[in-house]
TrEMBL record, chains A, B:
Residues 8-48 form the S100/CaBP-9k-type calcium binding subdomain domain. This is S100/CaBP-9k-type calcium binding subdomain domain-containing protein. InterPro entries: EF-hand-dom_pair, S100_Ca-bd_sub. Gene3D superfamilies: EF-hand (1.10.238.10). It comes from Denticeps clupeoides.
């Protein structure tokens, strides 16, 4: 890879390396504890599970992952996909909202 | 959102904002020219299309996007998904390769 990476390539790389870093034992999937730690530490604003005892099980249900795990990269990516799509919707509304403001000025 | 974002949240946000930035006219999809500029500028290492005349049409075919575009965020995200999965495979091999080395030492 060229020495200088683009923002987008760095972002994709971060998503992959953070998942790898969460699985200390080199396994391609995360056990429940590793997954909970990853979500709590790395997605504190986008995924709210810290306050709830059954927070992780609800999240796994929404991700269609068996309650006992493990969580594969593809299943983790499904969560990232949902979060990105939500972000895209929020930013799209913000962009149109700004336009409404600029019409009113 | 809290003032301090995690690496993972910043990465997801970058993927969304770069797509939005590529569509100057506030539209939720990119025309061919905007998409080509995004890929050439932001994915120079992960997607090789610059040297080939029909590079973009081949890429769109692989992405199952009509030749005339436009490219929606969901279709862009399909490309990101493929790139991330490839990166994950590469890093997994690297990790196991390192282990083989540490076995040999």
């Amino acid at each position: 890879m060229a020495a200088k990476f683009s923002e987008l390539e760095l972002a994709i790389n971060t998503l992959v390396t953070e998942f790898h870093a969460a699985s200390e034992d080199k396994s391609p999937a995360l056990n429940l504890e590793q997954f909970q730690r990853l979500v709590t530490a790395q997605l504190p604003d986008m995924v709210k599970i810290s306050g709830e005892d059954d927070g992780v099980s609800k999240l796994l249900q929404e991700m269609h992952v068996p309650e006992a795990g493990p969580v594969t990269f593809a299943e983790f990516w499904g969560l990232v996909d949902t979060l990105a799509t939500t972000q895209f919707g929020l930013q799209k509304r913000e962009k149109t909202a700004k336009c409404v403001k600029c019409l009113l000025l």
